[in-house]
Design brief:
The chain has a single domain, classed as Metal Transport, Frataxin, Chain A (2-Layer Sandwich), CATH 3.30.920.30. The strands form two sheets. It has a three-stranded antiparallel sheet, with helices on one face. The protein has a two-stranded antiparallel sheet with strand order 1-5. By secondary structure, the chain is of the alpha+beta class. The two termini are about 15 Å apart. It is globular, with a radius of gyration of 12 Å.
């Protein structure tokens, strides 16, 4: 199993939009996204910073309910 790539918040949001998520609201530097089937996630968008692999893994498994391999197909 390969390592997850380091992504910025903006890059992750673009991938989530491909998956069918829509921006619902933003509070400070955190953007809340929702899918039509009810799945939700919160993505931190800090300028010049990448999302830690641990947080990215949590978003993929718990929020998106995808495997790493399924997620990598959208990158």
């Amino acid at each position: 199993m390969s390592k997850l790539p380091l992504l910025t918040g903006k890059e992750l949001i673009r991938i989530l939009e491909k998956l069918g998520f829509e921006k619902v609201r933003q509070e400070g530097s955190h953007i809340f996204l929702r899918h039509l089937d009810g799945r939700t996630t919160l993505v931190p968008v800090h300028a010049g910073e990448e999302i830690d692999r641990g947080l990215l893994n949590k978003i993929i498994k718990k929020d998106l309910k995808l495997t790493r391999e399924e997620f990598m197909n959208y990158i």
